[in-house]
Amino acid sequence: MKKFRRRSARMNLMHFRVLTARYFKQIFTSPASFLPLILQAPVLLLIVFLVCRNDAFVQKSAASLTDANVTVFVLVVMSALMGILNSYREICKERDVLSREVFGGLDVSAYVLSKFTVLAVCGIGQCCVLYGGTLLFLDFAYPAPATGYVLSLAAMILTDLSVTAVGLYISALLKKSESAILPVLLIIIMQVVFCDSLFALSGAASWMRYLTPAAWGIAVFSNACDINGWAPEIYQKEMFGYSPLIGLGVLLLFTALFVLFTILRLKRAYRNQE
């Protein structure tokens, strides 16, 4: 078999374009791939409609804090859930094909970036449907609507993308999609438990929130809604007071790092093979 070798940037770009077009075609021509992507956001939107109060953000009082936190929690964690479910099988399910293509000259970086690009487009579309749908029955009553809508949607999208990148990395570590169930379950549990929203964190557990994408997404969304200002004498969350740009920047960093980790993982795996 051929050793991993360097290629020109032009060739890598060509690989990226061809692979991206191929994966989009696979999605739109395969009902098994297309239907889950189409149905995820509407189904989750129905759940939001059933469990969240439509006036949770209007009263801006201590009595509404729980309802508002639940709504933000559900939207952001659902974004993370869509990201991990979309990505955790993407690489390990086609390991045999990937091995043949890499040793036939395929660029690993182009492969990973094309996978992430296609999943990112799908994730962005899903988050837009989920968030846009909530606007039909929820009034977020942003103190600054001009930035509130943008920040909330950006928080959901970047949470989705960062967890998508984590899912790709998990997929690159494993050879069979069945083996991903436990890591995926742990990632989902981490988003729920350490998101610093529904559960009070203290001690060492409080540090885990800084490593949890959903916690940063919730912090940005909650900052846009000024939840810390509703009843400051009884309710304050440190992360909710951070600048939204910090939260969005951390999510971008998570995304970039795990995409890079995925590339390095695959390059190492195929470089070491004879």
Question: How does this model look, in words?
Answer:
The model is unreliable at 1-5 (pLDDT under 50). By secondary structure, the protein is mainly alpha-helical. The N and C termini lie close together (6 Å). The chain is built from 10 helices and no strands. It has one domain. α2 packs antiparallel against α3.
Defining traits:
about 270 residues, mainly alpha, elongated, disordered N terminus
Record the SSE blueprint:
Blueprint: H1 9-29, H2 31-51, H3 65-87, H4 95-103, H5 108-134, H6 145-173, H7 181-193, H8 204-208, H9 213-225, H10 244-271
Helix pairs in contact: 1-2, 1-5, 2-3, 2-5, 3-5, 3-6, 3-7, 3-9, 5-6, 5-10, 6-9, 6-10, 9-10
From the N-terminal CA to the C-terminal CA, the straight-line distance is 6 Å
Query: In total, how many domains does the architecture comprise?
Result: 1
Helical residues, percent:
55-70%
Count the DSSP helices.
10
- Uncertain stretches: 1-5
Radius of gyration (CA) equals 20 Å
Q: Strand content of the residues, in percent?
A: under 5%
Kindly report the average pLDDT value. Answer: 90
Assembly form of the protein: single chain
Largest sheet geometry: none
Tally the beta strands: 0
Shape: elongated
Order of helices and strands: HHHHHHHHHH
Structural class, please? mainly alpha
